[in-house]
């Protein structure tokens, strides 16, 4: 493979050195524990190779020495007494009981390989499902494991796969690429690179990156840009720190994002402040879209969304009149049932304003490899690939990621149709506490499987309830690794400095198991060889050890790729869509029997769709807004992180608290007709009087394992159901109706 000319950063010191009697190793952070991005870190170890301190690497252009509390507290997580340290097994009939028995890695691998191979021979490889959680450092390895074994059923456990995948699938279907804000992250010189321009405006839509650092974006970049002069617009039901600094704050009703975007499109189109040249040359279906949004006047949209008309108009004008602007979009778009039309409406805002592949606008990530669609899809037998669960129902499953439908899979577990599932491999997911709606239904459906393997850092409610074998995985200072995946990327390494128990990295685990399931697909002697192969394949021009010394390595980047024929397989200018343009009216959706234009559907239940429920359930509930110290269901064991956020909370406006006779710090139930969860009240003016916001992912590691660490009482997903959008993507995780009332003493 050719050397693509990756750009390196100068380092003052070697990647290993000594300081005050401690060894310092340079590297980057990428899971476990969970995080999406991979800041540059300096890992400090003592004479026993124990991790004692983590600092930000000031030479790494990504974070320039900054770190958040989760990496600063990493030694408490890595060295925690409760870490899983050895493989464990338990008799199938003992599921739910704390009767684990330590076994060797050989016994674990032999048992799993024998089971999986028997299932493949007797029933077919599609009978084993492979599940992951959020995009930790895992998609490439888990897809390769699933596909090399022969199963097309690789999944992510949220209903409607409603994290990231709807945005990715929606963008690929309508533009042939995925679009991210340009904060100069693709350049080794960052803000000093002359090709980059400061975004005039950053619109944060359902995304709070100061806290979440999500999907490849380090939140401090927004603050950097604000200091240099970027203006902020936020779209959020909560007044976040960024909202308090914003030019415009659209405090919308949860789940009404598509209506708000269509209202802004209405303003921009009618006031003629879109980019005419870009629309004429590169967009398809402008007139149809204009007609569609005509009824979404600011006044009507105010009624739907609760955002004052003048704020809608002001935000639309500020965004459209900017020379370059970023749409910093987040999870709230995916966690709405009709996520694809919402994604389509919001992306039309940056498309018709010409913020496509422009400096300081929205850019298509030069993905080095593998992450987007997974690694190793070619290994799958084409006939068996057709058996992917949900593929016959949802054509969109082919865009971006080759996943099976979680909503169809739960039915398959329950009914044995179209075929009976036998086993599952779970890696990096604690779905009973986190991704899965309807906890009781989920648990019952999963109990039908004969054999379940979980790979994790800690014992979790999911593993306690369901696993027959548990494998202990590494946190990042315990392993070597390569970061080659998502977002605008650089080749980056993770360096091993310590060892805990018999833990193995996910990559080692999958390589060793892969060798037993399909040796031809895993020809590498060890992970070093595997990483070097990947680097060669990507054209990085270095093997793994060379990259360890030199990382990060930046992939060459160009703006306006669509003008140069760099986005289409045939090398023609334009976009990789049927019309060759950005499709505001989508040919693909139309051919798939879906509405080709964006639309808004009232969230159900909701104050407009089900007004009859308001008497019993008067509050609109949004869930899962991130906090600084916790990552989904993780970190509850880590003392300094738990201390900052010791209990699950629900945020409520002071006037609402008075109305319901509640006080700050009260223990309350948050409840709807389907279920309830325990919360501590936080009285705060950041939410309006009609809306409450609660966090997700709760369980108590300190509680009784045989009561599943209290997950049943604590899980907000008790209130949710498996109801995906029409395209199979999206689910209302961030909008419901509920009531909040005090927990009686003794309850
Ligand atoms: N109501 C509601 N529910 C939500 C959300 C919401 O906003 N509201 N958000 C959703 C979203 S966006 C997502 S992505 C999902 C996330 O859901 P999941 O990704 O399933 O998150 P967790 O439940 O934290 O499970 C992660 C597990 O992986 C383990 N782990 C961490 N790092 C590693 C590693 O490197 N290797 C291995 N083997 N294990 C590791 C952790 O210990 C933990 O037990 O949750 C979703 N759930
Ligand atoms: N510390 C920490 N960081 C994380 C995670 C974590 O658990 N903890 N999880 C990671 C994962 S997997 C993901 S997907 C990302 C998610 O990160 P983000 O995309 O930032 O998502 P959230 O924090 O869930 O929500 C962002 C904002 O949307 C608002 N919001 C709620 N409902 C709505 C709505 O209906 N419409 C709109 N427009 N806004 C709404 C919330 O109030 C919140 O301020 O974070 C990642 N980073
Ligand atoms: S955002 Fe925080 S947890 Fe993630 S890598 Fe950076 S410092 Fe670590
Ligand atoms: Mo996510």
UniProtKB/TrEMBL annotation:
Q: Which UniProt keywords apply?
A: Iron, Iron-sulfur, Metal-binding
Chain ranges of the 4Fe-4S Mo/W bis-MGD-type domain = 22-82
Lineage, top-rank taxon, reads Bacteria
- Family listed: Belongs to the prokaryotic molybdopterin-containing oxidoreductase family.
Q: Which PANTHER family match?
A: OXIDOREDUCTASE YYAE-RELATED, TRIMETHYLAMINE-N-OXIDE REDUCTASE
Name of protein: Dehydrogenase
Q: Which organism is it from?
A: Raoultibacter timonensis
């Amino acid at each position: 493979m050719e050397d693509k000319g990756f750009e390196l950063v100068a380092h003052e010191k070697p990647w290993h050195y000594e300081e005050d009697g401690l060894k310092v190793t340079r590297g980057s952070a990428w899971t476990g524990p969970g995080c999406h991005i991979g800041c540059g870190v300096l890992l400090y170890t003592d004479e026993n190779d124990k991790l004692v301190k983590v600092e930000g690497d000031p030479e790494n252009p990504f974070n320039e020495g900054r770190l958040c509390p989760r990496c600063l507290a990493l030694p408490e997580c890595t060295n925690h007494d409760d870490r899983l340290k050895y493989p464990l097994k338990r008799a199938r009939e003992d599921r739910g009981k704390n009767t684990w028995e330590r076994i060797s890695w050989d016994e674990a691998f032999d048992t799993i390989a024998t089971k999986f191979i028997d299932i493949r021979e007797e029933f077919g490889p599609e009978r084993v499902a492979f599940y992951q959680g959020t995009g930790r450092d895992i998609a490439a390895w888990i897809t390769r494991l699933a596909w090399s074994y022969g199963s097309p059923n690789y999944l992510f456990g949220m209903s409607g796969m409603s994290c990231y995948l709807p945005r990715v699938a929606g963008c690929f279907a309508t533009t042939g690429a995925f679009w991210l804000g340009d904060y100069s992250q693709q350049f080794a010189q960052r803000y000093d690179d002359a090709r980059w321009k400061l975004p005039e405006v950053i619109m944060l839509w359902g995304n709070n990156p100061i806290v979440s650092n999500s999907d490849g974006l380090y939140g401090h970049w927004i603050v950097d840009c604000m200091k240099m002069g970027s203006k902020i617009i936020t779209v959020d039901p909560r007044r976040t720190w960024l909202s308090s600094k914003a030019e415009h704050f659209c405090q919308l009703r949860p789940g009404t994002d598509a209506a708000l975007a269509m209202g802004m499109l209405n303003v921009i189109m009618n006031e003629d402040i879109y980019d005419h040249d870009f629309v004429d040359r590169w967009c398809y279906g402008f007139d149809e879209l204009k007609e569609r949004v005509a009824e979404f006047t600011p006044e009507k949209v105010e009624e739907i969304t609760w955002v004052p008309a003048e704020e809608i108009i002001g935000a639309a004008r500020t965004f459209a009149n900017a020379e370059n602007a970023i749409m910093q979009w987040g999870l709230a778009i995916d966690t709405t049932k009709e996520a694809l039309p919402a994604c389509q409406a919001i992306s039309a805002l940056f498309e018709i304003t010409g913020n496509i592949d422009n400096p300081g606008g929205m850019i298509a990530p030069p993905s080095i490899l593998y992450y987007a669609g997974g690694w190793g899809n070619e290994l799958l037998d084409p006939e068996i690939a057709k058996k992917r669960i949900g593929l016959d129902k949802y054509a969109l499953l082919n865009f971006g990621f080759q996943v099976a439908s979680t909503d169809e899979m739960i039915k398959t577990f329950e009914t044995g149709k179209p075929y009976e599932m036998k086993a599952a491999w779970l890696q990096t997911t604690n779905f009973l506490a986190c991704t899965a709606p309807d906890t009781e239904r989920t648990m019952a459906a999963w109990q039908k499987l004969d054999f379940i393997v979980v790979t994790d850092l800690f014992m979790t409610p999911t593993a306690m309830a369901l696993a027959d074998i548990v494998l202990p995985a590494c946190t990042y200072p315990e392993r070597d690794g390569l970061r080659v995946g998502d977002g605008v990327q650089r080749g980056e390494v993770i360096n091993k400095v310590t060892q805990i128990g018999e833990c193995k990295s996910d990559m080692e685990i999958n390589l060793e198991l892969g060798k037993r399931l399909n040796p031809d697909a895993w020809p590498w002697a060890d992970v070093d060889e595997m990483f070097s192969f990947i680097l060669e394949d990507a054209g990085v021009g270095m093997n793994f050890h060379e990259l360890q010394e030199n990382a990060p390595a930046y992939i060459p980047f160009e703006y306006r790729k669509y003008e140069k024929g760099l986005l289409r397989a045939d090398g023609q200018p334009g976009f990789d869509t049927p019309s060759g343009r950005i499709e505001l009216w989508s040919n693909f959706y139309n051919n798939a029997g879906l509405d080709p234009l964006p639309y808004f559907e009232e969230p159900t239940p909701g104050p407009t769709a089900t007004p009859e429920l308001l008497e019993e359930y008067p509050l609109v509930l949004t869930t899962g807004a991130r906090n600084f110290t916790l990552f989904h269901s993780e970190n509850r064991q880590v003392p300094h992180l738990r201390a900052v956020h010791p209990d699950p909370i629900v945020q409520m406006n002071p006037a609402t608290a008075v109305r319901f006779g509640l006080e700050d710090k009260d223990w309350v139930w948050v409840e709807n007709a389907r279920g309830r969860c325990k919360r501590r009240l936080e009285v705060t003016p950041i939410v309006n009087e009609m809306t409450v916001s609660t966090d997700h992912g709760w369980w108590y590691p300190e509680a009784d394992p045989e009561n599943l660490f209290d997950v049943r009482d604590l899980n907000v997903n008790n209130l949710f159901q498996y109801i995906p959008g029409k395209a199979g993507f999206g689910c209302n995780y961030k909008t419901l109706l509920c009531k909040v009332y005090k927990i009686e003493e003794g309850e």
